[in-house]
Amino acid sequence: MTIYYPYTHLFPGPSHTVAISGPHIQVINTTTGDVLHSTTLFTDEARNAVLKSGPVRCAAVDKESKYLITTGEDKILKLWEVDGLKLLSERELPKKPTGLAFSADAQSILASDKFGDIFRYPFVHVPSTVTQKKDALSSHENPSGGQLILGHASPLNAFLLTHDERYIITADRDEHIRVSWYPQGYNIEMYCLGHSKFVSAIHVPQFDQSKLISGGGDPDLKIWDWMTGEVKHAIDVADAIDPFLVVRAVKRRRGGHDDDEEDEAVEGNGSKRRKGKGRAKGKDKQEEEKESEEGPIASSSQTTTDNAEKVLVIRKIGSLEADGVPTVIFSAVGATALFTLPYRDGVTMSNIRHFDFGRPITDFAIANDGLIWILLDSEWTPDGVPSGSGSPFVKVLQFSLGQLVEAPSGSHSALLLTLNETSLLEASVDDIKKLSLYIDLQTMPKYADKPEETEETTAEDTSDKKLSNKELGRMKRKQIVLAKAGGVGVGEGEEEEEPLSKKNKSEL
């Protein structure tokens, strides 16, 4: 039985398409389907360096599809020229990244990380000869001299630059969406408050750039006016997604801690858990403990057991105009279907359409010609053993009369054939497990063993439980958000927060 790596990233371009599977990168001619370049064909030394970096976790291309940035397990940011797959530079990132992006002119590279910071790096890397000191506002040292743009008090899950690049919008694991100036990220323009769980995906549609679509662990997608922080619409999607969630997360406990201690490390507030006399070999203390808190890694073929539960994590949100109709497209971690809904007032769950592939979707990409490329974990089986089934790893959809259908043969056919045959790379069972395709099902939720807080439970008398200042602060913030969401006053004796527009980080 031959097992293959599923694709984790695909960037279809007008002339070149970049396909990433496991630690490897391949550049394919978009028209002919010929594999032009591959890291599997590098010299022994260069190929070993690729393997040493581990599976590619984050990747992005510039809007002209000329350059590619990637990071793996080693936290090395690699800049590639797509034509020729030439490695232009490498630089060390301070912490494990959660996202990468190019600026519109490709002269700046942005990287978000697990400790809540976003750094900006110049396209041309000039290695520093002077040891970089820790920035007073960042949560950790920055070995490659990046410019700190902003920081959150919890891991960043998603970020984007607005189309005019005047603002940067960020979303974190503490339910916050923040709109900040760019590149003066210390100036906060607005908060979009209303999520009660983590936010894992955000998107500004090209056809309505004043709106933001967000989703995560909540049962709905929210549409915001991001300049005012007002929720314009919320669409319940949980019930539509639930029948297609086939990958489940193993339940885990956090030793009774109410919150993720990761925040303590970010905020640098001297938590006892964070004090240590030294560092583990090859890894600093903060990151070592942070990773241990995340629990066991969900493999790419996570089995369904009695100790497992369904967890909703919106993976990605995109949009396009389908037959002239503005349409939102989204996927969920561990779900086998791709979902769409029309972008209009009054849309409800009944308007959601889906296309079921029978295998979990690892990612999707919307090409400039309107075709939707779907990446599938075709090695997944309910019993957790990679199948080697021979099922397609990539499918292509298009809209027809408002419905998703498989695209008929056309100019994309040669590329599709290559992706499903020629460019497949063999892998072992251990290689597949190391991909951790569904790790978000375990690391995103914060209260895996606790009931959800409601307005009533957060206001209960807690005299029998001594709360930390941080826990009290979080409870107060949650009460304020819940009160505002319900149109209720904060209550006597409680001072409402200052207006959230344009606060400096030091004021938070």
Automatic annotation (TrEMBL):
A single GO cellular-component term from the record reads:
cytosol
**Biased composition, Basic and acidic residues: where in the chain?**
462-471, 499-508
Q: Where in the cell is it found?
A: Nucleus
Q: Which InterPro entries match?
A: Trm82, WD40/YVTN_repeat-like_dom_sf, WD40_repeat_CS, WD40_repeat_dom_sf, WD40_rpt
Which superkingdom, per the lineage? Answer: Eukaryota
Specify residue ranges for compositional bias: Acidic residues: 452-461
Which terms are listed as keywords in the entry? Nucleus, Repeat, tRNA processing, WD repeat
Q: What does this protein do?
A: Required for the formation of N(7)-methylguanine at position 46 (m7G46) in tRNA. In the complex, it is required to stabilize and induce conformational changes of the catalytic subunit.
Tell me the protein's name.
Predicted protein
